[in-house]
């Protein structure tokens, strides 16, 4: 079990016996760890001012850092295929979604950006669409079929949206 443990970085917990969880390792990041995504044997870590870190999980107790993408304040992340989608909280409080090409995990780079509105809590990716839980601005549905030019295709007005998950065409 990998836990974004804020100031402690990344905590790795053995839950083979769920009644007795045990901390087995910690991965010290440069800053505060807020979000994690895992795709195959790669882990994407939002390390706030440390950017997006990509680590190999060949040895899950000792993730090996492969590369870092410079992002002002990496907050949340989801990954699909050769892209990671990162919520970036810039200094003035604006929230951006950065599309990061991770096809070369040693040299990830931002290839697209979108400002979806205020405070983005969580992301969910499904095919060519990224769904953003956008707090007081509701649900944002973003077309990411062209990674260099993500665009909002719909907004659904909800109040205080904290998370989003898609299943069978329902959000």
Give the structural class. Answer: mainly beta
What share of residues are in beta strands? Answer: over 45%
Shape: globular
Would you count the extended β strands for me? 15
Largest sheet: number of strands, sense, barrel closure:
4 strands, antiparallel
Helix content: under 10%
- The succession of helices and strands, N to C, reads EEEEEEEEEEEEEEE
- Stretches with pLDDT under 50, minimum 5 residues: none
* Global Rg: 16 Å
What is the strand arrangement across the widest sheet?
A: 4-5-6-7
Average predicted local confidence, pLDDT: 90
Distance from first to last alpha carbon: 26 Å
Number of helices: 0
Can you give a write-up of this model?
The radius of gyration is 16 Å and the shape is globular. The strands form four sheets. A four-stranded antiparallel β-sheet has the order 4-5-6-7, with no helix packed on it. A four-stranded antiparallel β-sheet has the order 8-9-10-11, with no helix packed on it. The model has no long low-confidence stretch (mean pLDDT 90). 0% of the residues lie in helices and 49% in strands. The protein has no helices and 15 strands. With 171 residues, it is mainly beta. β6 and β7 form a beta hairpin. The two termini are 26 Å apart.
């Amino acid at each position: 079990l990998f836990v974004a443990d804020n100031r402690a970085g990344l905590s790795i917990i053995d839950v083979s016996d769920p009644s007795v969880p045990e901390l087995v390792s910690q991965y010290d990041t440069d800053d505060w760890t807020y979000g994690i995504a895992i795709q195959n044997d790669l882990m994407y870590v939002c390390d706030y001012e440390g950017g997006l870190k990509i680590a190999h999980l060949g040895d899950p107790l000792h993730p090996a850092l492969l590369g870092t993408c410079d992002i002002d304040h990496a907050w949340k992340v989801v990954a699909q295929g050769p892209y990671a989608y990162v919520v970036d909280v810039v200094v003035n409080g604006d929230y951006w979604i950065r599309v990061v090409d991770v096809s070369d995990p040693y040299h990830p780079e931002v290839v697209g950006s979108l400002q979806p509105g205020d405070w983005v809590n969580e992301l969910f990716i499904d095919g060519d669409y990224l769904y953003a839980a956008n707090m007081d601005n509701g649900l944002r549905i973003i077309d990411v079929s062209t990674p260099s030019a993500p665009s909002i295709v719909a907004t659904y007005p909800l109040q205080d949206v904290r998370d989003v998950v898609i299943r069978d065409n329902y959000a």
